Fold each of these.
Amino acid sequence: MLPALAELYGVTADDILAGETLRGRPAETEGPARRRLLLLRLRTRFDICFAGAVALGILAWFRVEYVSLAAWPVSVGLLWIGYVLAAHPARYGDVTLDTGTWENLYRKLLAASALQWWTLLRLVRIGDLVIDDAGMRLYYAGDTWKPLIFAVGLAVLCAILEWALRRRAGKVASLLWVPERLRLSLRQGDGFLRRTRQIWLVWLMWVAVLVGLWFLAENQLDLALAPWIMEYGEELIRDGLPESWIVLRERLEADVAPWKWLQAGVLAAGGISAAVLAVWTGIAWKKRRPPLAEQGET
C-alpha cells in the first residue's frame, strides 16, 4: 500500500518510511493533495470569518441600542481578518489561488461590504433633527439622501474591488460572472478587456446614481405630503383635493412641486443618458477585436 499512499499524498515511499511530514517541504516538490488541503483551509478560514461578519452586520442593521455600535466595527474587522488569513498565505506562502477562487473571495467581500456600508448609513444621522408635531415623529433632515449616498458608495466600492481583483488574479478576472466558454475570448487583447470593464462599470454607476436620485425625490415627496395626510387623510390627498379648495390646492402644489419636478427630471435625464450610453456601448463593442494583422494571424 505504500506506493498508493505515496501517490495520494504526493510524497515518496521513502518519505513515509522515514516519518517525514509534509510540513516544511518546498512548494515545488509537493503534490496536488497538499495543495488541495491548503486551499480548503484557506477557503474555510475566510468563509467562517465571512459568515460571522455577515451575521454581525445583520445584527447591527437592526440598530439595537449599544449592541449595534459594537457589532458593526467587529463585523468589518472580522471580514478583513478573514481576507488577510486567506490572501496572505496565497501571496507570500506556498500555495497559489486560481482565478475562480480569487473571484469567489472578492465577490463575497463585495456582498459583505455592501451590507456593512448600508448598515453604517442606518446607524449615522445626517442633518438636523426635525420634530414633526403633526405626524408625532422625529427624523433627521438629511436621512433622505442616504439611498443616493449608498448607491454612489456601492459603485465606488465595485470599482475598487474590481481593480484589486485584477491585480491579484490577472486581467481576465472580474466580479461579474463570466461563462467558461467566454474566458478564452477575453484573453484576445487588453483593449477588449479594458473596454468591457469600462462598459459595465459605467452602466453600474449610471444605474446607482439614477436609482439614488429617484429614491431621494420620492422620500422628499413623502415628507412633503406627510403633514397634509395627517390633517386631511391619505385618500383625499392621493386622489386630489376638491377643485373648490383653491387656496389649499395651491399650497399643496407648491409644497410638492420641487420633488415632482425632480422625479420628472430624473426620468428625462435617465432616458437621454441611457440613449447616449447605448450609442457609446455600441461603438465600444465594435472595437472589441483588433485587426488580424495586429494579432499576428493569417
Amino acid sequence: MGYDILSILQEKESTFSKGQKRIARYITEAYDKAAFMTANRLGKTVGVSESTVVRFAVDLGFDGYPSMQKAMQEMVLNRLTSVQRLEVASDRIGDQDVVSMVLHSDMEKLRQTEEMIDRGEFRAAVNAILKAKRVYILGVRSVAPLANFLGYYLNYMFNNVHIISGFSAGEMFEKIVGVNSEDVIVAFSFPRYSASTTKGAKYCRSAGATVIGITDSKLSPLGQCSDHVLVAKSDMVSLVDSLVAPLSLVNALIVSVASRREKELSQTFANLERIWDEYNVYEKQVEP
C-alpha cells in the first residue's frame, strides 16, 4: 500500500469491531513490537484469535497478514530508537540460533535484492560513472564502509574519485560545493536514514550533477532525490544494520564498471604488480 499503516488505522477507526480496535490500539502504541509478531502471537497478545488478525489485515486492504506485517516493518525501521532496536531484536531472536537466523535473513535480503534491482537503472548508473568527470561517493555513519569499499576500487579505474564519509554536515558541503553537470554522486542511505546524506544529494542534484542513490526503496528520502535508484534490501539485527545485500550490489557495480575499462585496468595492475613486488607490499608465499 502507498501510505503509512498508522494513517490507515486512523482513517478506518470508526469501522472497527471491538476486537479490531484492540489490534489497532496495540499496533498504534507498540508498532515496534507488533511489526515483528506473527498473526498468532499478535492475536494472543491483544486477546483475539489468529483468524481475527488475518481478517483485520484484509479489511485494511492488504492481501493478507504477511503484506500488512511487511508494511509495518518498512514503516518502523526508520522510527526505531537504538533502545527499541535492542528490545525488538531480543523478541525476534528468542531461543533461535543466532548464526542461523542472521545468515538466513541475509540470504533472504540477497534474494529480494536480486529480484527487485532494475537492470535498466543499473546500466544507466554504470554509464553515468564511466562518463563522469569526477565521481563523488557519499556515505556516512553505518554505511561509510560501503562508500569506502566502492571508492577503493574506483580509485584504480579513475583519477578523480572523492570519498565523502566521516565528515560533519558543514565539511561535507565544503567537499561538494564545486559539483556540476559533469559529475556523478553515488550516495548510500538505509534506515535510519541520514539527514545529511539526503541534504547533500539534493544539493548535488540542484547543481546539475547526476545522483545515483543506493538505498532500500525508491520512496526513501534518498530515493526521491536521485536520478537513478539502485534498490538493495537491508535488515535490522539488534544495533547492527545488515548491509550484506547492498555490499553485493556494490560488488556488481564495480565488476560492471571494471569490465568496461578492462584494457586500462590491465595496464594499471601490471604497473602496480611491479611496484608491489619491488616494495614488498604483500607477503610472498613460501613453498614448503
